[in-house]
Protein backbone atom coordinates (compact mmCIF):
# COMPACT_ATOMS: atom_id res chain seq x y z
CA UNK A 1 0.00 0.00 0.00
CA UNK A 2 2.76 2.39 1.01
CA UNK A 3 4.67 1.77 -2.19
CA UNK A 4 1.44 2.28 -4.17
CA UNK A 5 1.01 5.63 -2.43
CA UNK A 6 4.61 6.55 -3.27
CA UNK A 7 4.01 5.70 -6.93
CA UNK A 8 0.96 7.97 -7.03
CA UNK A 9 2.96 10.77 -5.40
CA UNK A 10 5.77 10.31 -7.92
CA UNK A 11 3.35 10.27 -10.84
CA UNK A 12 1.78 13.44 -9.50
CA UNK A 13 5.17 15.09 -9.20
CA UNK A 14 6.21 14.33 -12.78
CA UNK A 15 2.78 15.43 -14.04
CA UNK A 16 3.09 18.65 -12.06
CA UNK A 17 6.60 19.33 -13.39
CA UNK A 18 5.26 18.77 -16.91
CA UNK A 19 2.42 21.25 -16.26
CA UNK A 20 4.80 23.80 -14.79
CA UNK A 21 7.08 23.70 -17.84
CA UNK A 22 4.19 23.69 -20.30
CA UNK A 23 2.97 26.79 -18.52
CA UNK A 24 6.29 28.64 -18.32
CA UNK A 25 7.61 27.63 -21.78
CA UNK A 26 6.45 30.71 -23.71
CA UNK A 27 7.83 33.15 -21.10
CA UNK A 28 10.80 31.04 -20.18
CA UNK A 29 13.60 33.11 -21.72
CA UNK A 30 12.22 36.41 -20.50
CA UNK A 31 11.71 35.08 -16.98
CA UNK A 32 15.21 33.62 -16.88
CA UNK A 33 16.64 37.03 -17.68
CA UNK A 34 14.38 38.84 -15.25
CA UNK A 35 14.97 36.44 -12.34
CA UNK A 36 18.73 36.11 -12.71
CA UNK A 37 19.40 39.64 -13.95
CA UNK A 38 20.83 38.06 -17.10
CA UNK A 39 23.37 36.07 -15.07
CA UNK A 40 22.08 32.70 -16.32
CA UNK A 41 23.83 33.51 -19.61
CA UNK A 42 27.20 33.79 -17.88
CA UNK A 43 26.56 30.63 -15.86
CA UNK A 44 25.79 28.68 -19.04
CA UNK A 45 28.92 30.13 -20.70
CA UNK A 46 30.91 28.85 -17.74
CA UNK A 47 29.32 25.40 -18.02
CA UNK A 48 30.27 25.13 -21.69
CA UNK A 49 33.80 26.41 -21.11
CA UNK A 50 34.26 23.62 -18.55
CA UNK A 51 33.00 21.10 -21.10
CA UNK A 52 35.65 22.15 -23.56
CA UNK A 53 33.77 20.92 -26.67
CA UNK A 54 35.73 19.47 -29.59
CA UNK A 55 34.75 18.94 -33.27
CA UNK A 56 33.40 15.47 -33.92
CA UNK A 57 32.08 15.01 -30.40
CA UNK A 58 28.80 13.34 -29.52
CA UNK A 59 27.16 15.32 -26.78
CA UNK A 60 23.93 14.99 -24.87
CA UNK A 61 22.28 18.01 -23.24
CA UNK A 62 19.50 16.72 -21.00
CA UNK A 63 16.53 18.87 -19.90
CA UNK A 64 17.82 21.17 -22.61
CA UNK A 65 14.42 22.30 -23.96
CA UNK A 66 15.23 25.83 -25.00
CA UNK A 67 18.53 24.88 -26.61
CA UNK A 68 20.51 27.44 -24.61
CA UNK A 69 23.35 25.06 -23.77
CA UNK A 70 23.37 23.34 -27.17
CA UNK A 71 23.65 26.67 -29.02
CA UNK A 72 26.61 27.64 -26.86
CA UNK A 73 28.33 24.32 -27.58
CA UNK A 74 27.83 24.85 -31.31
CA UNK A 75 29.15 28.42 -31.06
CA UNK A 76 32.19 27.22 -29.19
CA UNK A 77 32.81 24.48 -31.82
CA UNK A 78 32.38 27.00 -34.57
CA UNK A 79 35.08 29.22 -33.12
CA UNK A 80 37.34 26.17 -32.76
CA UNK A 81 36.86 25.28 -36.41
CA UNK A 82 37.28 28.92 -37.50
CA UNK A 83 40.66 28.94 -35.81
CA UNK A 84 41.66 25.71 -37.57
CA UNK A 85 43.17 26.05 -41.02
CA UNK A 86 41.82 22.94 -42.73
CA UNK A 87 38.39 23.05 -44.30
CA UNK A 88 38.02 19.42 -43.46
CA UNK A 89 37.34 20.36 -39.85
CA UNK A 90 34.33 22.38 -40.92
CA UNK A 91 33.05 19.28 -42.74
CA UNK A 92 33.61 17.16 -39.67
CA UNK A 93 31.61 19.63 -37.65
CA UNK A 94 28.64 18.99 -39.91
CA UNK A 95 29.17 15.28 -40.53
CA UNK A 96 30.32 13.88 -37.24
CA UNK A 97 29.51 16.26 -34.44
CA UNK A 98 26.19 15.38 -32.86
CA UNK A 99 24.61 17.54 -30.20
CA UNK A 100 21.42 15.96 -28.86
CA UNK A 101 18.97 18.10 -26.92
CA UNK A 102 16.75 15.83 -24.85
CA UNK A 103 13.74 17.12 -22.91
CA UNK A 104 10.58 15.51 -21.57
CA UNK A 105 8.38 18.48 -22.43
CA UNK A 106 7.21 19.10 -26.01
CA UNK A 107 6.45 22.78 -25.40
CA UNK A 108 9.97 23.46 -24.15
CA UNK A 109 11.45 21.57 -27.13
CA UNK A 110 9.28 23.65 -29.45
CA UNK A 111 10.68 26.84 -27.93
CA UNK A 112 14.16 25.48 -28.62
CA UNK A 113 13.35 24.48 -32.21
CA UNK A 114 11.87 27.92 -32.87
CA UNK A 115 15.00 29.56 -31.54
CA UNK A 116 17.12 27.29 -33.74
CA UNK A 117 15.07 28.48 -36.72
CA UNK A 118 15.60 32.11 -35.76
CA UNK A 119 19.34 31.43 -35.71
CA UNK A 120 19.23 29.71 -39.09
CA UNK A 121 20.20 26.38 -37.50
CA UNK A 122 17.10 24.38 -38.39
CA UNK A 123 18.89 22.37 -41.10
CA UNK A 124 22.06 21.78 -39.13
CA UNK A 125 22.53 18.03 -39.10
CA UNK A 126 24.66 18.28 -35.97
CA UNK A 127 21.72 19.41 -33.85
CA UNK A 128 19.05 16.85 -32.88
CA UNK A 129 15.94 17.36 -30.76
CA UNK A 130 14.77 14.33 -28.80
CA UNK A 131 11.74 14.02 -26.56
CA UNK A 132 12.72 11.79 -23.66
CA UNK A 133 13.06 11.22 -19.95
CA UNK A 134 16.35 11.85 -18.15
CA UNK A 135 15.54 8.85 -15.95
CA UNK A 136 15.33 6.42 -18.88
CA UNK A 137 17.40 7.74 -21.77
CA UNK A 138 16.86 6.41 -25.28
CA UNK A 139 20.60 6.36 -26.08
CA UNK A 140 23.00 3.46 -26.20
CA UNK A 141 25.54 2.61 -23.51
CA UNK A 142 28.87 4.40 -23.86
CA UNK A 143 27.71 6.47 -26.81
CA UNK A 144 28.42 10.07 -25.63
CA UNK A 145 31.59 12.08 -25.08
CA UNK A 146 29.83 14.60 -22.90
CA UNK A 147 26.66 15.05 -20.87
CA UNK A 148 25.25 18.34 -19.55
CA UNK A 149 22.15 19.13 -17.56
CA UNK A 150 21.38 22.77 -16.76
CA UNK A 151 18.67 23.72 -14.29
CA UNK A 152 17.04 20.35 -14.92
CA UNK A 153 18.06 17.82 -12.31
CA UNK A 154 16.25 19.38 -9.37
CA UNK A 155 12.91 18.85 -11.12
CA UNK A 156 13.26 15.12 -11.75
CA UNK A 157 11.59 12.50 -9.57
CA UNK A 158 14.65 10.27 -8.97
CA UNK A 159 18.01 12.04 -9.06
CA UNK A 160 19.84 8.70 -8.66
CA UNK A 161 18.24 7.30 -11.82
CA UNK A 162 19.29 10.39 -13.78
CA UNK A 163 22.89 10.03 -12.58
CA UNK A 164 22.92 6.30 -13.36
CA UNK A 165 21.66 7.02 -16.87
CA UNK A 166 24.26 9.77 -17.37
CA UNK A 167 26.96 7.30 -16.36
CA UNK A 168 25.57 4.59 -18.64
CA UNK A 169 25.44 6.67 -21.82
CA UNK A 170 28.88 8.27 -21.39
CA UNK A 171 31.93 6.73 -23.02
CA UNK A 172 34.92 6.00 -20.79
CA UNK A 173 36.68 9.37 -20.51
CA UNK A 174 33.35 11.17 -20.93
CA UNK A 175 32.49 14.17 -18.77
CA UNK A 176 29.34 14.82 -16.73
CA UNK A 177 28.49 18.45 -15.97
CA UNK A 178 25.53 19.76 -14.03
CA UNK A 179 24.57 23.41 -13.57
CA UNK A 180 21.96 23.88 -10.88
CA UNK A 181 20.55 26.42 -8.46
CA UNK A 182 22.07 25.45 -5.16
CA UNK A 183 22.51 26.54 -1.57
CA UNK A 184 23.85 29.80 -0.18
CA UNK A 185 25.40 29.51 3.27
CA UNK A 186 27.03 32.89 4.00
CA UNK A 187 24.96 34.54 6.78
CA UNK A 188 23.41 37.81 5.68
CA UNK A 189 23.59 36.83 2.02
CA UNK A 190 21.49 33.74 2.79
CA UNK A 191 18.71 35.83 4.36
CA UNK A 192 18.76 38.23 1.43
CA UNK A 193 18.67 35.37 -1.05
CA UNK A 194 15.82 33.60 0.80
CA UNK A 195 13.81 36.81 0.74
CA UNK A 196 14.50 37.23 -2.97
CA UNK A 197 13.56 33.62 -3.77
CA UNK A 198 10.47 33.27 -1.63
CA UNK A 199 8.98 36.75 -1.98
CA UNK A 200 10.37 38.44 -5.06
CA UNK A 201 10.44 35.55 -7.57
CA UNK A 202 6.78 34.43 -7.15
CA UNK A 203 5.75 38.10 -7.36
CA UNK A 204 7.80 38.51 -10.55
CA UNK A 205 6.21 35.31 -11.89
CA UNK A 206 2.81 36.87 -11.34
CA UNK A 207 3.77 40.25 -12.77
CA UNK A 208 5.71 39.17 -15.85
CA UNK A 209 4.19 35.78 -16.69
CA UNK A 210 0.84 35.93 -14.84
CA UNK A 211 1.78 32.66 -13.12
CA UNK A 212 2.71 32.89 -9.43
CA UNK A 213 2.19 29.18 -8.67
CA UNK A 214 4.67 27.75 -11.17
CA UNK A 215 7.39 30.09 -9.96
CA UNK A 216 6.55 29.33 -6.33
CA UNK A 217 7.00 25.65 -7.16
CA UNK A 218 10.34 26.31 -8.90
CA UNK A 219 11.64 28.18 -5.86
CA UNK A 220 10.52 25.48 -3.44
CA UNK A 221 12.27 22.87 -5.52
CA UNK A 222 15.58 24.71 -4.92
CA UNK A 223 15.23 24.28 -1.16
CA UNK A 224 14.52 20.55 -1.51
CA UNK A 225 17.57 19.95 -3.73
CA UNK A 226 20.56 18.39 -1.88
CA UNK A 227 23.34 20.75 -0.79
CA UNK A 228 26.57 20.86 -2.82
CA UNK A 229 28.55 18.22 -0.84
CA UNK A 230 25.67 15.78 -0.67
CA UNK A 231 25.01 16.10 -4.39
CA UNK A 232 28.73 15.56 -5.08
CA UNK A 233 28.55 12.30 -3.06
CA UNK A 234 25.54 11.17 -5.09
CA UNK A 235 27.51 11.76 -8.30
CA UNK A 236 30.42 9.73 -6.92
CA UNK A 237 28.00 6.96 -5.84
CA UNK A 238 26.79 6.75 -9.44
CA UNK A 239 30.36 5.73 -10.38
CA UNK A 240 31.91 9.05 -11.44
CA UNK A 241 35.46 9.94 -10.49
CA UNK A 242 37.24 13.24 -9.89
CA UNK A 243 33.93 14.68 -8.70
CA UNK A 244 34.15 18.38 -7.88
CA UNK A 245 32.00 21.46 -7.86
CA UNK A 246 32.36 25.18 -8.32
CA UNK A 247 30.07 27.64 -6.55
CA UNK A 248 29.04 30.73 -8.47
CA UNK A 249 27.66 33.84 -6.72
CA UNK A 250 28.27 32.29 -3.30
CA UNK A 251 26.37 29.09 -4.11
CA UNK A 252 23.31 30.60 -5.78
CA UNK A 253 24.33 28.16 -8.49
CA UNK A 254 26.88 25.37 -8.56
CA UNK A 255 28.51 23.46 -11.39
CA UNK A 256 29.22 19.85 -10.47
CA UNK A 257 31.44 17.71 -12.65
CA UNK A 258 32.58 14.12 -12.82
CA UNK A 259 34.47 11.83 -15.16
CA UNK A 260 33.65 8.30 -16.23
CA UNK A 261 36.82 6.22 -16.38
N1 LIG B 1 18.34 23.58 -19.69
C1 LIG B 1 17.44 24.66 -20.04
C2 LIG B 1 18.00 25.98 -19.55
O1 LIG B 1 18.93 25.93 -18.74
O2 LIG B 1 17.53 27.02 -19.97
C3 LIG B 1 16.01 24.41 -19.50
C4 LIG B 1 15.91 24.29 -18.01
S1 LIG B 1 14.27 24.24 -17.41
C5 LIG B 1 14.39 25.06 -15.86
C6 LIG B 1 14.08 22.56 -16.90
C7 LIG B 1 13.77 21.60 -18.02
O3 LIG B 1 13.82 20.27 -17.51
C8 LIG B 1 12.38 21.76 -18.64
O4 LIG B 1 12.52 21.98 -20.01
C9 LIG B 1 11.67 20.45 -18.32
O5 LIG B 1 10.77 20.05 -19.32
C10 LIG B 1 12.87 19.50 -18.23
N2 LIG B 1 12.62 18.25 -17.49
C11 LIG B 1 11.98 18.09 -16.31
N3 LIG B 1 11.97 16.78 -15.96
C12 LIG B 1 12.64 16.10 -16.95
C13 LIG B 1 12.96 14.74 -17.17
N4 LIG B 1 12.61 13.79 -16.30
N5 LIG B 1 13.64 14.41 -18.28
C14 LIG B 1 14.01 15.35 -19.19
N6 LIG B 1 13.72 16.67 -19.03
C15 LIG B 1 13.04 17.04 -17.93
UniProtKB/TrEMBL annotation:
<feature type="binding site">
    <location>
        <position position="66"/>
    </location>
    <ligand>
        <name>S-adenosyl-L-methionine</name>
    </ligand>
</feature>
<keyword id="KW-0489">Methyltransferase</keyword>
<comment type="similarity">
    <text>Belongs to the class I-like SAM-binding methyltransferase superfamily. MenG/UbiE family.</text>
</comment>
<dbReference type="GO" id="GO:0031314">
    <property type="term" value="C:extrinsic component of mitochondrial inner membrane"/>
</dbReference>
<keyword id="KW-0999">Mitochondrion inner membrane</keyword>
<keyword id="KW-0472">Membrane</keyword>
<protein>
    <recommendedName>
        <fullName>2-methoxy-6-polyprenyl-1,4-benzoquinol methylase, mitochondrial</fullName>
        <ecNumber>2.1.1.201</ecNumber>
    </recommendedName>
</protein>
<keyword id="KW-0808">Transferase</keyword>
<keyword id="KW-0949">S-adenosyl-L-methionine</keyword>
<comment type="function">
    <text>Methyltransferase required for the conversion of 2-polyprenyl-6-methoxy-1,4-benzoquinol (DDMQH2) to 2-polyprenyl-3-methyl-6-methoxy-1,4-benzoquinol (DMQH2).</text>
</comment>
<feature type="binding site">
    <location>
        <begin position="133"/>
        <end position="134"/>
    </location>
    <ligand>
        <name>S-adenosyl-L-methionine</name>
    </ligand>
</feature>
<dbReference type="GO" id="GO:0032259">
    <property type="term" value="P:methylation"/>
</dbReference>
<keyword id="KW-0496">Mitochondrion</keyword>
<feature type="binding site">
    <location>
        <position position="103"/>
    </location>
    <ligand>
        <name>S-adenosyl-L-methionine</name>
    </ligand>
</feature>
<keyword id="KW-0831">Ubiquinone biosynthesis</keyword>
<comment type="subunit">
    <text>Component of a multi-subunit COQ enzyme complex, composed of at least COQ3, COQ4, COQ5, COQ6, COQ7 and COQ9. Interacts with PYURF; the interaction is direct, stabilizes COQ5 protein and associates PYURF with COQ enzyme complex.</text>
</comment>
<comment type="pathway">
    <text>Cofactor biosynthesis; ubiquinone biosynthesis.</text>
</comment>
<dbReference type="GO" id="GO:0008425">
    <property type="term" value="F:2-methoxy-6-polyprenyl-1,4-benzoquinol methyltransferase activity"/>
</dbReference>
